[in-house]
Each structure stands twice: as structure tokens, then as C-alpha cells.
Amino acid sequence: MTSMSRLEKKLSDRLESRDYYEAHQIYRTLFYRMSAQGKWQQLQDLLYNGAIKLLDVNEPTSAIDLAELYVESLQKSNVPVSSAALDRFEQLFTRLPALLEKDTTPDGSRVDRRSEFLSRALQWTMAVGGKKRYREKGHPDFHARVAKIVWREGNYVAARNHFILSDDPEKFASFLIDFQQRCGFKSEKDLFIAQAVLQILCTRRAKMAATLLQLYCEKHPEIGGEPPYQLPLLNFMWLLTLCVQLRKVTYFSILVEQYQKCLERDPSYRDYLDKIGQIYFGLPPPQKSAAGGLFGSILKGLLTNKAGTSSSTDSMAEEDSEDDFSDEGAVDEEGYVTAASSANAASPMTPASSPKLNACSSSTVPTFEDGMDLD
């Protein structure tokens, strides 16, 4: 009998005799030996099943440790992200306890016991990511699964952070509606979706942003229907998702100008629109010392285009872009003008004799703020 076989036999005996401390130590010994031998599939089965067994017998601390070793082995062996691997991750993450009784401290501070497990799993999906976005932020299917779990647990802030990085607009829309109705004011139903749309556009996923906006507005009991909407900020977001398909800075500049008062409701919008202007319209980054901010960047972009200088729009927009509308057809200029007219927003093709309609009221309500790294 080999030393490995003896260890496995000893592990079985310890589990049967309920000596779970010793069983845990044997699992760890097997982790190092099987890792050195490259027996990755056998090791991953052993660690996953071991974590489940220890959870079944109410040994959560040891189970958490084996779960962390399990995802570490996934990264070391470069296992690609798959439904089967994510199913196992989800099963463990769902069953592992966030807190233990002994975690209660005098000052009331607590740390989720699954944090290290979650961090290692994220690092695994980043390490094997096939796209730049996956390598930088993690796989979207991983984020979607985490988001749904922590949503069920009532952790809305964490759920939102993971939904932003997922590619599941339907579940994200349902979540945002629930989040707004439970945690926001009635007057903030447009703010919750607006910030999500802007953040997703900043990650070069215009189709995801457009789909999310549509689903949110259709499902929300106080919005419903199709565009144009009664709320000006929703119309701005709708027209913005169309405008980025055209990638014409003139349309963008007029749209932002028309809805300037709406955009003042949340100061973070300016930073998002600066980034969107750079990604989709080739606008220069705003200089902190220069006056004008976003509108200064737009003016500079307009002057550059009129002078005949080549714009960097295409190269910037295509960098790791996932804005493929080919299956449905991107909006054309006529379609955009029709949409803008229906929302009482001006466009470059509005007849000169027509009065410019004010698309946005100046009302201000409390805002929901949640910063996002735009880089």
C-alpha cells in the first residue's frame, strides 16, 4: 500500500470515528502532496466532497478552510471557468456560514467568514479569463451567481457591485427594482437605474446597458411601458444608449446640453459622462485646471472634428468592446432623430425655425450614490 493510499485510508477511518480535527489535518496533507504530483482533478473532488462532509457534521471552520484550498487548486491547475466548476463554487458559497457564534466581538464588528473563499474564487476567474474584462474584473457568470446569493441574504450593496460586473440584465433589472422599492425613496426610481446604465456604458457594454434600461422600465410597477418615458432622466438614458451607437459627437453634445439640469441631480454623472465621451465619441479627457469640464471637452471635440483632424473614437470604442448590435441592427440617424423628437429633445437635424424644447425639469431629489472605478 502506497503512502497516499494509507493517508486516504486513515482519512476514512478518522471521519468514521468522528475525529474531525485529525481528518481536517489529513485533508491538508493530501492537498500538498497531490498538488506536488499534479493530481488536480482527484484533489479537487477530494476537497469539494470533504468540505461538504464537514458542513454536514457541523464543522464549518474546517469546511471553510477546505473550500479555500479547493478554489486555490482551481487556479493553480488553470481550470477554465465552466458551469460545472461554478456549480460547485455556488454550492459551497451558499452553504458556508457567513458568521459563526464565536465571531461576535465586544464592539459588534464582524467579518464575513467567506471573504477569503470569495477572494480566491475571484482570483481564479481572473487568472483564467479569456477577455481583458474578465482578467481585470473576473468572469461575469461568477459575479452573477454571487450577486444572486448575497441578494437573497439581503446584502443589497454587495449584490449591486456584483451585478454591475455580470452579463445578466434580466436579473439585474429585477434586483434594482427590489433595491429601489426597499431602500430608496419613491422619487428615486429613475436614479437607481440611471447610475447603473452609466456605469455599464463605462465598461464598454452598450448593449447590456440598453437591455437593462428597457427591462427595468418594463418591469417597474411605477414606470411600465415603452419610451418615451414620463421621467426626463429616463429619456436621457434611453437616448444616450441610442446615441452611443451612432458615435457622433454632435448628437452627444446636444443631448447633454438639453438634459443638463437633470444631470445636476447627481454630481457623479459628470465623471461617467466624461468617460463615455472618451470611449464612444473620441473626446479628450477633461483637464482639472481647465474651465468647462464636460462641456469644454465636447466643444474641443467638435472643433477638432470640424478642423478635419482624425478622431480616436473608433480605436477607443473597439478596445475590448462588447457593443455588438448586429443581431438587432444599430440605430441609424433617422431613428435617433425620431426618438429624440418623441422625447422633446433637440437634435442636429431639428429645423432651424423650430423652437428648442426644454427636455428636462429642474427638480432635485435625494440621490443614491455609489462610486465606481472607471478605469
Strand element count: 0
CATH class of one domain: Mainly Alpha
Summarize the main sheet.
none
Portion of residues within helices: 55-70%
Q: Mean pLDDT across all residues, rounded?
A: 86
Low-confidence stretches: 306-318, 351-358, 361-371
Quaternary state of the chains:
single chain
What share of residues are in beta strands? under 5%
Number of helices: 19
Gross geometry: elongated
Task: Provide an overview of this structure.
This protein has helices at residues 3-16, 20-37, 40-56, 60-76, 83-95, 115-127, 132-137, 140-152, 156-164, 169-183, 189-201, 206-219, 232-246, 249-258, 260-263, 268-281, 293-306, 313-318, 333-342. It is elongated, with a radius of gyration of 26 Å. The protein has 375 residues and is mainly alpha-helical. Helix 11 runs parallel beside helix 16 (268-281). It is built from 19 helices and no strands. Helices cover 63% and strands 0% of the residues. The termini are far apart. It has a domain at 1-99 and 112-148: Tetratricopeptide repeat domain (Serine Threonine Protein Phosphatase 5, Tetratricopeptide repeat, Alpha Horseshoe), CATH 1.25.40.10. InterPro entries: GET4 (IPR007317), TPR-like_helical_dom_sf (IPR011990).
Quick description:
By secondary structure, this protein is mostly helical. It has helices at 3-16, 20-37, 40-56, 60-76, 83-95, 115-127, 132-137, 140-152, 156-164, 169-183, 189-201, 206-219, 232-246, 249-258, 260-263, 268-281, 293-306, 313-318, 333-342. The protein contains 19 helices and no strands.
